[in-house]
Amino acid sequence: MTTEHKPSIPFTYKLIIGIVLFIGVFVAALVLGAADTTLKDIWLALMTNETGDTLSMLREIRIPREVGAIFVGAALAVAGAIMQGVTRNPLADPGLLGLTAGANVALAVTIAFVPAADYFSIMVACFIGAGVGTVMVLGLGALKKGGFSPFRIVLAGAAVSAFLTAIAEGIGLYFKISKNVSMWTAGGLVGTNWGQLKVVVPFIIIGLLIALFLSKQLTILSLSEEVAVGLGQKTTQIKAILFIVIIILAGTAVALIGNMAFIGLMVPHIVRAIVGTDYRYIIPMSVIVGGGFMLLADTLGRTISAPYETPVAAIVSILGLPFFLFIVRKGGKAFT
């Protein structure tokens, strides 16, 4: 039986603090970079119709890029939180459990066989690929008697991810589209534009709203399936909806920036240390922390060796791998 102490600070105050910090990181992300900008430039770019090289750069390059970072970070963080709750596996993450690798294969297939595909078609393909990757991992994880276990799921995720990554690379080599595929799958926000965001953002918002709506059911499900059934939950339907939400969130993230592991692993653990184990609090805080974390990682990528870019995926992995090993060492309970 799990007992949860009441938080010393009300959740509302924690949320306000999180939003204030998030806004600060967003402003810093817009100011810092290879091109010099000021707070005045940001104000003019956001609030006026004035023109100029700096303002055009902000409106057409930096602002859409950072808006993309916010939504991708939020999507991956919430997808990871849902996966950890549904599977009761503290090591669950879309990038570690085959979702993003499946979406990458679908993306490679689409580029190879439908070179004229528009952005919406590519995103739909990523949804399908993420779904296939999920089914493969869960199928492998459930093959052995005894059902799911965190260790078995991680092994299945690693095997499926390696297999699907090899397929994506093979397709790229065979059809001579390796450069195009790698540009998508490298894991970065370079080239993000308003047209892409208009396609991707509505799906992410829908996924986040459904996650918020089902957060109470997810909390009960994360504690015990027997309790959920005893309270009258339709666990199969709820799980199915939540897995669809995970696929939507992971698929859109891959369609926008490519492969990005560890965000869905790290952020939910950090958030649980702040707000506890109630998913009514975890989901909204994951949106803020995930978006802020991705903003920070992208800003570091743009500024560490400016004017050259350090891949965001590399920065996230450098932070994520030690975190993953730490969680494994602590048995998944380092922050709970």
Architecture overview:
It is built from 14 helices and no strands. With 336 residues, the chain is mainly α. The protein has a single domain, classed as ABC transporter involved in vitamin B12 uptake, BtuC (Orthogonal Bundle), CATH 1.10.3470. Helix 3 packs antiparallel against helix 11, helix 5 crosses helix 11 and helix 12 crosses helix 13. The chain is globular. The mean pLDDT is 84.
Short description:
This protein is an all-alpha fold.
Radius of gyration over all CA atoms, rounded = 20 Å
- Any idea of the CATH topology? ABC transporter involved in vitamin B12 uptake, BtuC
Give the beta-strand count.
0
* Helix proportion: over 70%
Number of helices: 14
Form type? globular
CATH class: Mainly Alpha
The CATH homologous superfamily is called ABC transporter involved in vitamin B12 uptake, BtuC
Helices and strands, in N-to-C order? HHHHHHHHHHHHHH
Low-confidence stretches: none
Which structural class matches the secondary elements?
Answer: mainly alpha
Quote the beta fraction.
under 5%
* Total count of domains: 1
What is the end-to-end distance?
14 Å
* Biggest sheet architecture: none
Summed over residues and divided by their number, the pLDDT gives a mean of 84
* CATH architecture type: Orthogonal Bundle
